[in-house]
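Worked example 4.2. Below are the chains of a multi-component assembly; read each line carefully before continuing.
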Amino acid sequence: MSSIPPFGGFGLGLRRTHYADFLDSDVPVDFVEVISENYMVDGGRPLRILEQVRAKHPVIIHGVSMSIGSAGGLDGEYLAKLKRLEQRIDPLWVSDHLCWTRTSAHNSHDLLPLPLTHEALEVVCDNIDRAQSSLGRPMLFENPSSYLTFPEDEFAEWEFLSEMVRRTGCYLLLDVNNIYVSAQNHGFSADDYLAGLPLERVRQIHLAGHTPKSPERDIVIDTHDREVCDDVWALYSKAMTIIEQPVATMIERDDKIPPLPELLEELDRARSLAKQAVPA
Amino acid sequence: MSAAQSLAERQAAFMAQVLYEEAPLPQGWNARHAAGIEVYRGNYRSSLVEALKSTYEKTERWVGEAAFRRAAAHHVITNPPDSWTLDKAGASFDATCAELFRNDPEVAELAWLEWAMFEVFTAADFAPLDAAQFAMQTSEFGEEQWANLRLEFMPAASARMVKHDLRAIWNALGEDELVRVNASLESEQSVLVWREGERSTFMMGSAEEARAFLAAQSGTPYGEICMLLAGENPTEEQAHDAAMRAGALLGRWLNEGMIVSIKA
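Applying the procedure described above to all two chains together yields the following structure tokens:
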């Protein structure tokens, strides 16, 4: 399996609201990330737009439906369509999440949490092997945000991710907001989490906003519907201080998407923090 | 969930929690787990309802936001998705609308139209056969070749019979202020859906057009389509008239760019 060389840069997710911005102007980003499933189609306007954007920027394809944690294995049709998109776009890399989304009968279309057990680790590693072999390239997997943990857990999440990386040769997409959200929900230390990961395998960082706890609900929710909060910026700075290689940083916004200049302003903040955070 | 359960069993139990509020909590779970699962259940339902709202914007406007939300919630509960693509979550929503909006039968027809336009939007790309190419390819045709002529349409083009003037409804929905129109038709008509370049589009047609289109799309030769339009035991005049009408339909499909190739 080939390796993924580090790529340092700052990018945004390509969302429909901003198609015209990306097609008609020179948006100051180093890459764009797209949701794979939106373009795993046979033809039509979405693919045309993606090809036009690809002609201007490197593209990362980021999936939400591979279901790498499904006990029933991966969906062959899904893999074939992903491979077709990968060949069409020649992305910087292909990523998905450490989660599961479906059983043999139903698909939740949500990133569901895995019990962190030895059995789940076997399943995840087998599925990653199959996916990477199908694509002919290593993938990145993102640490999830979660709203519950399981009584049967046998690993801390960072231990699970570390072992997954060691066994499969995959890379990490570090979602700093997800670490924050899960740390708040499950009471672990975000610093311990970062320190426990094989950070040399991180190739990309996601930054996003979340819905904080409220009097009615004692759970932080990963909503991607607002600006990145100060605590998450602080965790990003810390991560950039201890990650030694260049990484690609991206702002994720999936709901209440603002005009592009607002996201570019947030991206500038990431640039500025990354510049200040010289690795020790 | 007990320690003896396999991952597959645990995932099936978790999915049941997400899908059904009444599913009993797995063994060992507490109020904290129940609160967590409520978030996942909420995410699941809202993402599906949002997907339906995005696919069925016109239907939502026609029935109103609250009624649409109820129908969409009903649809996702009664039709839990099994495909990896969220795009399929809206499949058969027209049947749900037929059940829930019995007194407003145009709603199901409008939902069918939006779904057909949604499907054709990302269908495989194609190059339509233009009239000049068609004329060149058929210039030497004898009677037998015309009778055996088969048409290949652009992928995912579709047609059906409707009892409401969907064009009138569509136009009304395009206005800033929605003025409800009485769109009931005196007799059934056809609606045909296809893609012009990158844009999904549709047209209304005579009652027999959908029948002829669907027959041609499934590979029925042109000669048999003429007979289909002529009906049983036609007189010579009726057969001639049907052939003229079939020719007019063929010309219309060709001019609209719906045909991609012919075989004889």
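Take a moment to check your reading of the output against the notes. The CA atoms of residues 14 and 26 of chain B lie 8 Å apart. Chain B has a mean pLDDT of 95.
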